[in-house]
Write a structure and sequence with these properties.
Shape: elongated
Distance between the termini: 24 Å
Order of helices and strands: EHEEHE
Strand order of the largest sheet: 2-3-1-4
Strand content: over 45%
Structural class: alpha+beta
Largest sheet: 4 strands, antiparallel
Radius of gyration: 15 Å
CATH topology: Alpha-Beta Plaits
CATH architecture: 2-Layer Sandwich
Helix content: 25-40%
Length: 102
C-alpha cells in the first residue's frame, strides 16, 4: 500500500522593523516567501497585516514593527527546513508558523 502525504495549510506571521524602508520590507517578504517555495511550499496569499504596530516590549532593541501574514500549503517534511531558514534571517525580528485546521 502506497503512503500518500496530505497537503497541510499553514499561516506564517513575520515581524520586520517598522523603520526599514518599504522597498526593503517588500524584499524581506519576498525572501521569506521564496524560502517557503524553495522547500516545496505553495503560497496562497501574502499581505501586510499590521503596519507600524507598537510592541508591548522591545524585540531585538526595536519598539515597533510591521507584521506580514503569509498563508501557504505544503506537502511533506519541509517545515523544519523552513523554520531553520527563517531563524537565520537577520532582518526578521520574529516569526510564527501555525497550522490551520482542515
Amino acid at each position: 500500500m502506497e503512503k500518500t502525504e496530505l497537503v497541510k495549510k499553514y499561516e506564517l506571521v513575520i515581524i520586520v522593523d517598522a523603520k526599514v524602508a518599504n522597498e526593503e520590507k517588500e524584499a524581506i517578504l519576498k525572501d521569506c516567501t521564496d524560502t517557503v517555495e524553495k522547500y516545496s511550499g505553495k503560497i496562497i496569499n501574502s499581505q501586510v497585516w499590521l503596519e507600524k504596530q507598537k510592541f508591548t516590549f522591545d524585540i531585538k532593541k526595536r519598539s515597533e514593527g510591521t507584521y506580514y501574514l503569509v498563508n501557504f500549503e505544503i506537502v511533506g517534511s519541509g517545515m523544519g527546513k523552513i523554520r531553520a531558514a527563517l531563524r537565520l534571517k537577520e532582518k526578521v525580528l520574529r516569526y510564527l508558523i501555525t497550522r490551520l485546521e482542515k
